[in-house]
Amino acid sequence: MSSLANKVSIITGGASGIGKACAELFIKEGARVTISDLNEEYGKKVVEQLGENSFFVKADSSSVDDNKRIVEETLNKFGALHIAVNNAGIGGESAKSAEMSIEGWKKVIDINLNGVFYGMHAQIPAIMKSGGGSIVNMASILGAVGFANSSAYSAAKHGVVGLTQTAAWEYATLGIRINAVGPGFISTPLVNNALDNNALAYLETQHALQRLGKAEEVAELVLWLASDKSSFATGTYYPIDGGYLAR
């Protein structure tokens, strides 16, 4: 039997990269999937590819109302909610801490941290009413260490880890497991479009495996955490980083 048979899921930022890879794997494993993203063109293409068990909602993850609407439309479409993957995020402005614009700081925190909180705030009641389930929050290796010129991103991802651990304790006995995933540098549009070839080549050397990760590799870990196979896993931060943090 497929590991997500009869499960309903939400994946934010599901139009490309890791989110898209998660959506593809979830569908393969029997789930019904709501994909949310600001990129309507890409989101609709993914749904066309995935078929009738998928659904697209154009939404801004930094909006409280949009996160509520994603849940409401999922319940209207599929009748329940069991899994949420809070994946939407941006790299944001690159600058030293004292040189970063206040607007740049706020934008990254709003999307990468507040968006995860707003997502869980709307998702948890619906998952409880559906009989319980799993939430997977997308952190980063920069949820464990710093990285020059990425103060907002690193702060947000550290915050995602703390938020995940706290919520996991709050809801563990109420049927919801909550974990965070910490990808290393993954070959996605977010990374590839932000860096030139020299920077990408350098980043490869910072991983023990001497390469960037693949979105599909991260999706396999997310699938495990979303499924009942990880039934004793909650409140944990799982790096998937090709050995980046092992140095």
Task: Please write out the topology.
Blueprint: E1 8-12, H1 17-28, E2 32-37, H2 40-50, E3 54-58, H3 64-78, E4 83-86, H4 102-129, E5 133-138, H5 151-171, E6 176-183, H6 189-192, H7 197-205, H8 215-226, E7 237-240
Parallel strand pairs: 1-2, 1-4, 2-3, 4-5, 5-6, 6-7
Description:
The protein has 247 residues and is α/β, with parallel strands linked by helices. It has a single domain (8-239), classed as NAD(P)-binding Rossmann-like Domain (Rossmann fold). The protein has helices at 17-28, 40-50, 64-78, 102-129, 151-171, 189-192, 197-205, 215-226, and strands at 8-12, 32-37, 54-58, 83-86, 133-138, 176-183, 237-240. Strands 3-2-1-4-5-6-7 form a seven-stranded parallel beta sheet, sandwiched between helices. Helix 1 crosses helix 8 (215-226), helix 3 (64-78) runs parallel beside helix 4 (102-129) and helix 4 (102-129) packs parallel to helix 5. The longest helix is centred in the middle third of the chain and has 28 residues, at 102-129. The radius of gyration is 17 Å and the shape is globular. The termini are far apart. The model has no long low-confidence stretch (mean pLDDT 96).
